[in-house]
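User: Hello! I'm new to structural biology and keep hearing that structure can be predicted from sequence alone. Could you demonstrate with Acetolactate synthase small subunit? Please show me the input and the output so I can see what each looks like.

Assistant: Of course. The first part below is the input, the amino acid sequence of Acetolactate synthase small subunit. The second part is the output, the predicted structure written as tokens.
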Amino acid sequence: MSVLKIKKGASKHSAYDLKDPNADVIETHTLACVVENEAGVLARVIGLFSGRGYNIDSLTVAEVNHEFHRSRITIVTSGTPQVIEQIKAQLGRIVPVYRVNDLTVEGPSVERELALFKVAGNGEKRVEALRLADIFRANVVDSTLDSFIFEMTGTSEKIDAFAELMRPLGLVETARTGVAALARGGEK
């Protein structure tokens, strides 16, 4: 059995250590995929993520071109730069996928999410919930004597902030659509 000894004061790293120092950095990316609108496509996309242990933070899907039967899948996911590149490459290999765009790296984009918040409360908590909703530009879409349902559109961070403020005021339930995003400018 051989034992490797390192001299006192000598570095444990060598010039031959080629590990990327950014390999452990976790990034969040928004991917937009244009796919054929047919049965099973979403299952194949989801299967790619679940089969490799990748996480989906947000997922939205809708048909965007009725004439050519195309749908747009917007996925927000997190991973190291290498994992994100693998995800994009593997998505591009799925047969009914026409285009994969990484909106995070391709330039400026606009991202929005819709959320509904049910807040139950009386007295001062009710008044405070209405005041905060006004500040955040949330709309009251339903009201009873003991609760409100607020509707809000904005960035995920804005929605998270509003939810955090509503928690102590009686937040009962939240429903979120997931991120919808488009690249800014004239190109696709």
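User: So the tokens describe the shape?

Assistant: Right, they're a compact way of writing down the 3D structure. Reading them back into a model, for example: DSSP finds four helices and nine strands in the chain.
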